[in-house]
Every structure is written in C-alpha cells, then in structure tokens.
Amino acid sequence: MARLPAFLAACLVSFSLATAAEPERLRVNAFPNAKALPLHAGFAKGIFARHDIAIELSFTENSIRQREGLAAGRIDVALAAVDNAVAMVEVAKQDVVIVTGGDSGMNEFFVQPYVRSFADLRGRILVVDAPDTAYALLAKKILLKQGLAAGKDYVVKPVGRGELRLKAMADDKENAAAILNLPFTIQAEQLGLKNLGSTVDMLGPYQANGAFVQRAWANANAPLLERFIAAYVESLRWSLQPGNRDEAIGLLVEKLKLSRDIAERTWRLLADPARGFTPDARFDRNGFDNMLALRAEMEAGRAPASPEKYFDLSYYERALARLSK
Q1: Are the C-beta atoms of 288 and 307 separated by less than 8 Å?
Q2: Cα(280)–Cα(236) distance, rounded to whole angstroms?
Q3: Which long-range contacts (CB under 8 A, 24 or more apart) does 148-154 make?
Q4: Which of 66, 202, 236, 323 is deepest in the core (most CB within 10 A)?
C-alpha cells in the first residue's frame, strides 16, 4: 500500500508539468517609434503573456538590418512598412509573407525652413531610411511629380530610421528633406522644420506598417503566429481605448523618452481613425495595390506582380476569430 501514494504523486507531478508549460518564445523586431505602442502595451499589461507568448522585443536601426535579420532567422516577426516584405520577395528572393496590416504610415514630408516649395529641393539632399524601399519611394514619387528625378536633380542619402532622419536634419541644414512619422513629426515642428503635407494626401491610400514573416516559419508555427496576432490586436485595442489614455501616454513618455505634451499629441494622432492606427491592424487592399503600383513604377518600371503572392491573411482571420470567442 505504501507504493500507491508515491505512484499517484508522480502522476500529479507529471500532470502539473504538462499543464504549466512555459510560454513560447517569439522574437519580434520593430522600429522604435510611436507605432511600437501596442508592443509596449502588450508587454506591460501582460497581454502577450496571457496568450502564452514570451516576447523578445528588439528594435532596428534601419530596414536593411531588419530584412537581413528576418532572412537569417535571427527574428521571427518583423513589424515595419510591408514594402520591405515585397522587396525581400522580389530583390532578395526570400519567401516571406505579410500577415497583418497596421496603418497608412502617418507620414509627412518635412523640409528645412529655407525650402519654400518642392521645386527648391533641386540640387539638395533627401535623407531616407533605405534608398530602395517604402517611404523613400514615396518621397521619390512626390518629387518626380514635381519634375525632380532622384540622382539627377537631388541626392538620396540613407541615414536610417525616423529619429536618425530627424537628427540628420537638425544637425546639418544641408540635409534638406525627409519623410517623417510620429513622434518625429511633432518634434520636427518644434524645431522649426516645415511640413509640406501628408504623403497620403499627395499620393492616395497606402498600406504601410504591418507584420511579415518567413513563409516556412509561419507554416511551422501557425498557432504561435495566430496567438501573437490576436495578442497584438488586443494590445492595439487597449492602446486606443479612451479609458487607457493616460496609461498609454505614460508608456510613450517612458519608452520613447518624450515630454508629456509631445506624448499627449502623439497619442491623439495615433488614435485618429483616419490618420492613425488602422483599427484591429486591418489590411488595406486598396492601399496595398497602390503601394505595389508605386514600387513597380519607381523601382522596376513594369506592371506590379499579382498582389496575392505577397500576403496570407488566414492567420489574421483565425486570430480575430480567437479574440471573438
């Protein structure tokens, strides 16, 4: 009889270990700007943990480094302008896939105070993240509409992510123009830089931020990816709830080292459904088609490929179904 309790105890230990599995590790890489708020919120509020995910969050200096990290398997999920995913497919021949939307970019075209119009950028320097993707292509298209061609009428200078573009313009007045987004647009205004307008107003709808992954990794880790998307959407919803405003602003202050007034203005713009985050990180097919057409025009000079080769929203749809239960 003495052996029975020991056997039962062993069974109980085994059951306890099976039901207390460790959260799955997920390596996520993003840009350290205001659009990272849902990631910070999801971590701070335990949302990722409730979805059994242990987030390892890192931030990139520029999109080239991020694309290299995803291709090499050093990160699992990239959050950035999804034009980078298209570039990985078409240029680097990497089989990556876009799995969520996010926003239209929240991009504004900023110039030095001495620039009166786009025409004044002739012979000047445009600072960009990487010269062949995303927001650099937006800037090139805007300037092309004004009769200015890259490499001929102005110089394209890669310096990296938004804060580095702002710093380049603040430190050297020869850096005449850049595409900026939150919170750097607000900081640029405070520095006296001039806003020539929204890229969406100038070029139309645009699918900017989203999540993309290696397709093989997604196939092998579908439940984990779906839980991440569900947790991200839940974190985004939390970030935009008016009742969470003060706490969300506090995260912007803490994580981005912003003053309270800039963080408050940033949150208001992020929460604007027309200009800020797309509710539930929905994928904008019209904006994506426009992005592909722009990329084809500016980089390849040919008609864009079939859009369906670049995205798979089945993970997103299952994630939303998970949240609705």
Answers
A1: yes
A2: 7
A3: 148/118, 148/119, 148/121, 148/122, 150/126, 153/121, 153/122, 153/123, 154/121, 154/122, 154/123, 154/124, 154/125, 154/126
A4: 66
pTM of the model: 0.90
pLDDT in tens, 256-307: 999 999 999 999 999 998 899 999 999 999 999 999 999 999 886 666 678 9
β-sheet bridge partners, residue 139: none
Q: What angle do CA 195, 65, 58 make, to 5 degrees?
A: 85
DSSP state letters, 217-266: HHHHTHHHHHHHHHHHHHHHHHHH-GGGHHHHHHHHHHHHT--HHHHHHH
Return d(Cα 125, Cα 141) in angstroms, integer: 15
Task: Enter the tokens of residue 186.
Answer: 């607000």
Residues 52 and 97 in one domain: yes
Place of tokens 């904008």: 284
Q: Going along 62-193, which residue ranges are E strands?
A: 77-81, 96-98, 108-111, 125-128, 155-158, 175-180
How far apart (Å, rounded) are the C-alpha atoms in residues 195 and 181? 11
- CA distances from residue 202 to 139, 177, 284 in whole angstroms, order as listed: 10, 16, 18
Examine the fold and report which residue of 178, 203, 228 is the final residue of a domain before the chain moves on.
203
Answer yes or no: do 297 and 240 share one domain. Answer: yes
State how far the Cα of 226 lies from the Cα of 238, in Å rounded to an integer: 18
Task: Mark whether 117 and 182 lie in a shared domain.
Answer: yes
**Within-domain flag for 97:** yes
Which domain covers residue 215, as residue numbers? 23-104+207-324
Cα distance between residue 276 and residue 208, in whole Å: 11
Amino acid of residue 123: G
Contact 50, 231 (CB under 8 A): yes
Q: Which residues contact 39 (CB under 8 A, 6 or more apart)?
A: 28, 30, 55, 57, 79, 232, 235
Number of domains in the chain: 2
Q: What is the CATH number of the domain that holds 170?
A: 3.40.190.10
